[in-house]
Amino acid sequence: MTALLRWHRARRRTGDEGFTLIELLVVVVIIGVLIAIAVPLYNNYKKGAQNTAAQSDVRNGVTAVEAFYTANGNQYPQSVNGTLGNPLKLTLAGGTPSTKSDADQIAVSAGNQLILKTTNTASGTTQPGYAICGWSSTGKNVYVYKSVTGKTIKYGPDKTTPNIPECKIVDP
């Protein structure tokens, strides 16, 4: 037993202990390279999730507007602007609240904006309908649903809503 202890002590005195500076620097460089790869990938995933949330808000808006239309005697709600993360409250023309439901609103995810524009049928020349425009503040894509066509169109990657007629801000 004492021979074994002597052997370990002798080995300890002559052996290398710890890491060299070069080995530590190599490890730090490897960790830095991994971080440099991971951060842009994370940011891309984050933007993709924000775009998906905006697209989902537009789809949920379609359901809410159609429910409003059915509950209010085939009348679409008035046009309304969304604010970041706050729900859109749907009202009849002139700002009259719906008498059919207290839950007539479109949920908007945090960081997203929606605009609802309804077409005017008073002149009899336009087909009744609506368009919902939604985008994320950082996702850089704009999603527009048109009830006349029944399709959602993706515009991007730059969020230039003034160039999309359905996304022009509605005057209150």
From TrEMBL:
It is found in: Membrane. The chain crosses the membrane at residues 21-42. InterPro entries: N_methyl_site, Pilin-like. It is a single-pass membrane protein. Keywords: Membrane, Methylation, Transmembrane, Transmembrane helix. GO terms for cellular component: membrane. Its main location: membrane. It comes from the Bacteria. This is Prepilin-type N-terminal cleavage/methylation domain-containing protein. It comes from Cryptosporangium arvum DSM 44712. The lineage of its organism: Bacteria, Bacillati, Actinomycetota, Actinomycetes, Cryptosporangiales.
